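User: My notes are a mess, but here's the protein and 2-acetamido-2-deoxy-beta-D-glucopyranose's SMILES. Can you give me a structure?
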Amino acid sequence: MIYNLHKCLLFFHSSMESIPPYLLCSFFLIIISCLMPYFTQAQTYKNISLGSTLIAKQDNNSFWASPSAEFAFGFQQIQKDGFLLAIWFNKIPDKTIVWYANGNNLVPTGSKLELARDGTLVLEDTNGKQIWNAESNNTGSVSYAAILDTGNLVLVSRDSVLLWESFNQPSDTILPTQTLQGDIKLFARYSEKNYTYGRYNMTLQEGNLELHVTYSPRDSRHHVYLTSETDGNTNQLIFNQSGFIYLPAKNGSIIQILSSDAVSPQEFYQRAILEYDGVFRHYVYPKSTISNGRWPMAWSSLFHMPSNICFMKLGQSGDDRGMGPCGFNSYCQMEQGRPTCQCPEGYSFTDPNDESLGCRQDFVSQSCDRETPETDQFYFQEMKNADWNLSEYEHFQQVTEDYCRLDCLSDCFCAAVSFVDGNCTKKKSPLSNGRIDASISWKTLVKVRKNFSSFKPGRADSEDKDRSTLVLIGSILLSSSVFVNILLLLATIVVFSLHSRKRSKVLQPRVVLPGRNLQCFTYGEIKEFTNEFSQELGSGNFAKVFKGVLNSDSGDPVAVKRFYNIVTEGEQEFKAEVNAIGQTNHRNLVQLLGFCTEGEHRILVYEFMRNGSLASFLFSKSGIKWHSRIQIAIETARGLLYLHEECSTQIIHCDIRPQKILLDDSFTAKISHFGLAKLLKTDQNLTVTEIRGTKGYVAPEWFRNMPITVKVDIYSFGILLLELICCRKNLDLGAEDEDQRILADWAYDCYIDGKLHLLVKDDKEAMDDMKSVEKFVKIAIWCIQEEPSLRPSMKKVTQMLEGAVEVSIPPDPASFFSSI
Ligand SMILES: *[C@@H]1O[C@H](CO)[C@@H](O)[C@H](O)[C@H]1NC(C)=O
Ligand SMILES: *[C@@H]1O[C@H](CO)[C@@H](O)[C@H](O)[C@H]1NC(C)=O
Ligand SMILES: *[C@@H]1O[C@H](CO)[C@@H](O)[C@H](O)[C@H]1NC(C)=O
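Assistant: No problem, the inputs look usable. Here's the predicted complex:
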């Protein structure tokens, strides 16, 4: 602040002599605006006087707010009877926590925070035991406390000196205007909802910014896994008021800007946090979405480091060991920008409630007895693009894959083997630093005992636990004396019978399809919970959608889709398709809950999306903010990516358009109507009359007697993307200028003529972000290439949207066909 002031005054002073008087006014304005932050901060001291207290109460977050009410300081309930003393963003629905005092030690209801008469800020539990305090060197002279509009909690002396600041004792987050320096550290929490110290911390040391990790989750020794490599030249990390995060050199010049994609602090909340997964991320949250009361959006990340935590060697000493972010035997994979931990086949989580602790082997290891090599007792689970690169112990060159496999099978030390281009690398147990990533060119074959058990490991439900107990019992049976065997056998029978009795009690009187818990409803039930189909939500060629309320205590609303004139071969086929839809599970897909196939009735029951379809917002007057539109584009892309490439049976949607994108309570985009193309047999029987309804979204191959592939969805997504960018329908026959009637053509013309601003000219936010507009238009043009093979895959589209890969210059969408 002071620094700013100096700069302004200097500027003013040096330029004063030569200016015409009428400009003086504007200089005064500049001065005032330079001083503004100083004044506003000075005014934001809202006194919390000595003797004030706050009590932790159930169902009532007691707090003191900052003058603007954007930040609050007080108790947040984390568990049933566990409160965290914290500072949080108070105007956003999820009250994101930015600072906390007692992460390791939650306090019960009735605990008290007091700004004592002697000037200490003290947290006491119900027994009067002190849990935490903020003590300045000079407590006696504290005159009041305040939570400022920057999110800083301060203890202030009579003469306005800050004696203590929460900014100097951060938890895992820093905020604009906050600086990391000296021996101040950020400590990541244990997991998203567990505020105990985790494995990671971040600090400035010997002139570098360093990220540290402990050797293992329960160890306190740690080592560096990422450093700024600033050669000892920096001793600060600054998060400045305009949202830049950078490392200044000791002389003040900037050596490294970490996050420069700054957005206006007037319009966005910002925070930078070292998260529980070891990644430091800079997040923004548009304020406007709150003030207009309609768009509670998620935080989106502007910057993160390291770029792929799965590739970091974490844990143990030296460069050649480490269990990675996920623990032994597991593998790490980035999904939607976050690392996830999974177990290979034959392994399951050591602690199903904490997937970062690694996996244990579920089968008996290979015997090393030479007489019984057990070579035929094992098989390989093949994993593409997978690697456990720190468990290697033997390497062969110029061998065949068969050689590689056989060698590992007959070697009792070999737990897995990697193979690429004649290179064979054997890995021993425990497998460490596992990851899957498209950049890994080789595959890994994980050795698993045949028929050890047929269950899929990795889920935290009790059934799996029971089964693994059985496996264990089974394996002990193989190796112990007759007497113990008999005892164990008896025990097993008891466990079994208890288990099955328990199951028969909880078994629901419903037909449940394999895969998911899809409920099979009777027509009578459906009639009842839709109140005889009284509330229609919409209708199409094949179906009508009604609102219903499930007969449960929760009273959750559902959407009931009732099909008419449906061409289906029979009940079995309908069930098979419904099952395929029911197996899907993704945040950006509308979830199928159940179905009815009684007599001629064909009905699907879905989760209900309170905010209806994207179309109703996108083309209405109120519109959707630019930032939210980007978010919706990315979410839709992720949903489609899942349907195309990630679910067990590939699903082509065939009808992507804004009417089919629904928005949930928090305006997350979810694709609906997927999987129905096959059900309705539209893929074969679609005639031009039938597609006319959605003209503009359908790919040219529908008309050209070409095979229908996933690329038809890419085309439709391209059109949708253009509509999201421009907030108008692809086809606007009322447009005054004839060139503008078809958005796809007009957008390409604007792109070629370098006049993209015409597309978003009434949208200030988009106008301020022309770089993104251009990127998105380019992606859309790639998607609407008339030649299907030129269109990118959904994976590529998603990567381009998220900025993970560059977008190259797209060709004219029609060029391929006009040239033949
Ligand atoms: C806060 O309290 C101090 C000391 O009692 C007082 O001097 C100051 O004016 C108060 N400030 C406000 C904004 O009330
Ligand atoms: C948080 O994680 C730690 C470490 O695993 C555990 O000891 C603690 O019980 C957890 N706390 C909560 C509130 O779940
Ligand atoms: C924040 O840092 C950036 C990069 O150095 C600079 O351009 C900007 O003016 C700074 N903002 C403030 C308020 O100091």
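The domain at 610-820 is CATH 1.10.510.10 (Transferase(Phosphotransferase); domain 1).
User: Great, I'll file this with my notes.
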